[in-house]
What we know:
Blueprint: H1 3-12, E1 22-26, E2 32-36, E3 45-46, E4 52-54, H2 61-69
Antiparallel strand pairs: 1-2, 3-4
Amino acid sequence: MDKLEIALKIIANCGLCNGKGYSYWGGSDEEYEIESCECNVYDIILDDNGEVLWDNGLLSQDELSIFATGEAR
């Protein structure tokens, strides 16, 4: 497994953020704070389905675009 696969597996199994990779809190919809969870050491940004939107350089841009579009070359 490469770094990204390992990081995604750790995030998916985290009980603190419920597999989101980040924690957020706040009083109203307009005022809230977001920070990476302690399980997300590479600050990977995932969408609501757990797909990688930004990987902090763990994949090359070409490889990341495959995840974003769902298309292989």
